[in-house]
Amino acid sequence: MTSYGVHSARVANINNNVTNVELSRSNFKVIDKISGKSTATYLLGIGGLSNKTLIQNAKAKMLENANLIGSSKAIINVTTENHTTIVNPFFYQKTGSVNHVMLLSNVS
User: What's this model's pTM, rounded to 2 decimal places?
Assistant: First the structure.
């Protein structure tokens, strides 16, 4: 048996949320780094989730960790990563993750 891993990352603003933050003054503060992760396991090629669903689940977990409701926080710097671990011929596992830096804007 052999095993190997494949990793890819995409840095882009892939969300549909638009946030305008004025950065001409020191009116913001980085308060936390947040992320979300989702994993799917396949046995003999059966099971798991699509890459799109993995990323959607990871983003939902990241947003849940961000605690955005009732606050003036913004999420920026989107990084989406996929990693596949393969143990031939029976098992492979896909992991999707979404990483961001969270800002607090309009700080006096």
Answer: 0.72
Query: Which is higher by pLDDT, 3 or 84?
Result: 84
Domain ranges of the chain: 3-16+25-105
Q: Are the C-beta atoms of 79 and 15 separated by less than 8 Å? A: no
Q: Which of 73, 81, 96 is nearest to 19 (CA)?
A: 73
Paired strand residues for 15? none
pLDDT tens-digit readout, 64-74: 888 888 877 77
Running DSSP on this structure, what letter comes out for residue 7?
A: E
Helix, strand or coil for residue 8?
A: strand
List C-alpha distances in Å: 108 to 26, 28, 33, 67.
8, 8, 22, 21
